[in-house]
Each structure stands twice: as structure tokens, then as C-alpha cells.
Amino acid sequence: MKRQYLEDYAVGQVYFSGTKRVVKEEIIAFAREFDPQFYHLDEVAALDSPFNGLAASGWHTAAMTMRLLVDGEFRPAVGILGVGFDQLSWPRPVRPGDELRVKSEVLEVRPSKSKPDRGMIRVQNTTLNQNDEVVQMFTGNLLVPRRAPAA
Fold first, then answer.
1. Could you tell me the sign of the dihedral formed by the alpha carbons of 69, 75, 81, 82, in that order?
2. CA-to-CA distance for 40 and 96, rounded, in angstroms?
3. Which of 54, 59, 80, 141 sits a CA distance of 20 to 30 A from 86?
């Protein structure tokens, strides 16, 4: 797939990723290292949690989402170079066996006023499970190069 420059983006464009099956052992391994809370580590103890069972850390969900984005259709020329994000939410837990995918919609395209070789795009990224339920949503603010800098 070809690399995309600022001129290739327009408000309303939608891009999709492939899929990722969530594996119980990966949930536990990520939690051990980065978010060691009982509802991410212990299937039995997690039954007595707000999740009512083992759930991936939100940060694990974010990491899986990033991998799906990098491997998906959305291909800014210098990579997915985020300068921040807004409104991160995890409305539903991610469980072992879930099949995740990401939908990215361009919300805004804006050439830089001070740096003619680049611009910014705002992209709403929605991570869905196999039932089309939203498990994560955030709006990314991305730096994207221009194909030919404006004069």
C-alpha cells in the first residue's frame, strides 16, 4: 500500500485494520509487566471484580490498537506520528477470545501555517470487538508530511 501525504486525506475518509485475536496468556503477561491488578491477572479472582471476569488492561487494548493501526490501511508517509490524543475511553472490557479491529475516520485536515512541509490531521479511532461493540475510542492528532511543500 502506498504512503499517504497530507494532500491524500479528506474529512470523512475511513480506513480499516485487520484483526487481532486476544489471547488469555498475552493479557496476563502484559498485566504482570505493566498493570498488575487482579482482574487482569487471575481468572478466578477477576470474577469478583467490576469486570466479572478476566479483562485486558486498557493500556494493553491501546497497545493492540496501535499494532492494528500500524498494520492497517491508514498509512501516513512518516508513520503514525501522534502529537497527542483526546477523549480516550474504554466503554467495554476486552476479553480472552475477542477479535479486535480498528476503524479510523478523518475528522480534520489542516496544513501548518508555520511549517509548509507538513500539516495535522485529527482521526477518530474506534476499536471494535467481533460483535461490533466499541471497546476503545480516541481521537488522535497526527503530524503528516506534505507531498510537495507549499510555496
1. negative
2. 11
3. 54
> What is the gyration radius of the CA atoms in the chain, in angstroms?
18
CA–CA dist 61, 44 (Å, integer):
21
Cβ-contact 1, 73 below 8 angstroms:
yes
Q: Which of 87, 84, 76 is nearest to 118 (CA)?
A: 76
Q: Are 99 and 130 in contact (CB under 8 A)?
A: yes
Q: Which helix (H) or strand (E) holds 86?
A: strand 81-89
pLDDT digits (tens, 9 = 90+) for 80-111: 999 999 999 999 999 999 999 999 999 999 99
- Rounded-to-integer distance, Cα 12 and Cα 7, Å: 14
pTM of the full predicted structure?
0.94
Q: Which three cell numbers stand for residue 79?
A: 508513520
* Interatomic CA distance for residues 26 and 38, integer angstroms: 15
Q: How far apart are CA 69 and CA 71, in angstroms?
A: 5
